[in-house]
Amino acid sequence: MEERKYYPLNKSQQVMFVNLNFSYKKSIVNICALVDLFSEIDADVMLKAMKTSLKRNKSAGARLTKHGKKFVQYFVENEEPEHITFVDLSDKNDEEREKIYNKWGATPFPNKNRDTQPYRLYLVKKDNGFCSIYICVSHIFFDAYSVMLMLNDVFAVYRAMMSGEPIPDCIIDPLSAYETDWEYEKSEKRDKDMKFWDEEVFDTEPHFSSIGGLNSKEYKKNRNSGEFINLLRVKGNQINLPFEKALTDKVNNYSMENNMSPQNLFYLAIRSYLSKVCGNQEDISIMNNLARRGTIAQKKGGGVMVNANFIRTVMPNTTTFAEGCRIYNKTLKNVYRHGNLGFNDVTAIYQKKYKTNPLESYFSFSVTYQPVIGVDTGDIKYSFRRMPNGADLMPLYLTIMPKDNFSGELLFNYEYLCGYTKVEDIHKVHEFIKVFLDKGIDNPEATLEDLMK
How far apart are CA 391 and CA 415, in angstroms? Predict the structure, then answer.
């Protein structure tokens, strides 16, 4: 019998493992999503395609275990999926199905995610005759990008089965991407990245900000830092708010004309809201989640590569909208050049310099900008949205993504910590973002303070 090979967790997995290990609510590492299909499918073939795909997906074959005194991972091959199921919920309405989905999402994987299949998939029949695919995977082994890769493979297998063509090869193998990560930890590039964060980002101590304003619970008296993780209060929820096609097109057109990503405009709007509710503060930090999928191995690898970075700007509110966009464009490019340094390494820098504890930081607003869903379903229309897992660690986590593959709208998914972030504040910031961008694009020489009024 071949001896089992063990591998260390990479830097991204280590962050997720800390969340799992120290949170009493183990569903904290569940990534949950729902794909609503708006075309008829053959449910029997789709279920077979899901099982075939997951059986050969090496991200799905990863397992967490304790080997000696360390938590490590190993990989199994061709193991029959145990948790891919057809569920007929055609006798339920939307609200009743949502409650069932939420129960699935809040259910942790057994044995604290150890030595168990890190995924559950349900093919759900709805009352409109169409189906949905509900996904729950462990963030120890999947991130949002690898969920998209998984779905792509599921639909590729489904199309092949329906057409009678050979099933295409599966390219998903995270090990080659992980090996690059492990090599980086011993490289000169890591030393240069450490210097960037130490000398350029944290050359002075940042200032905390919150959408709840200066009186929000996360603030620490007489300190620049605030509470951004609470391991004892982790009840979470989420709401989805629309970003209409007309404004989406407006943002995209401005970005193309100025040779920048729409991400810069969204970050400028968020930064300006935080400044407005925090006494016109000009030193604003946002946590940015970076996919780290620049190489071919990373694009094809699956697994967990996401990393969290600080986006810090010290920007006078007399700055114009156009100049603010350019500042974020430059800031994000610099951060991405040095974005491989692990989140734990970055936080260690400011913890040492400014004597903060591990639960404190300088941001309360975390953002993932996911401009494409990237799932090729062929002619099948679908919508995609994140679903709650019943837990959260940070006050507010926004994911900006396409609503579907046909409307041209965006969906803003706000995950929030119950008891800290108020739903009415989320609605306020969302409306502010839309009005700020609409007016700013029309008047790019307007100052931030004028647009913030």
Answer: 9
